[in-house]
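Our preliminary data section would be incomplete without showing what the modeling component actually yields. Below, a chain of 132 amino acids is followed by its predicted structure, encoded as tokens that our downstream tools consume directly.
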Amino acid sequence: MRRGSLRCTSVLAALSVLTLLLAACGGGGSSSDTAPTSPKPTGKLAHDAELLKGRILFQDNCAECHGFSGQGGVGPTFNDGKLLRDFPNIDAQVAFVEQGKGVMPSFRGQLSTAQLRAVVRYEREVLSKRGG
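Predicted structure:
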């Protein structure tokens, strides 16, 4: 086998593996029809702009660990009432999310104070109110 043919075969093999990996991961992108989403605020909260922004921030920054519905995973659930017990006031929870602790990463410098407050409100007022 010639050297050029071997290189071409190696490139084709690498592309085949990459194609398989991308297919297994959903192609590297997400379709809005199939991508998981977090629950929308409902009732009198349905049009609260800060909660709607918090939902998007939650999906983009928190759902990977806490689950799209706040059901937990790597991070704890928000659906069992413990969040509101552990953080009886919003400012304590905002400070925790900003600083991080243990496996919880710090979001300082990643999210503004207004963004932190929006995502924490969403966790408290939408996900924690859903129940398990």
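The mean pLDDT is 82. Residues 78 and 122 are 11 Å apart (CA to CA). Preliminary results of this kind motivate Aim 1 of the renewal.
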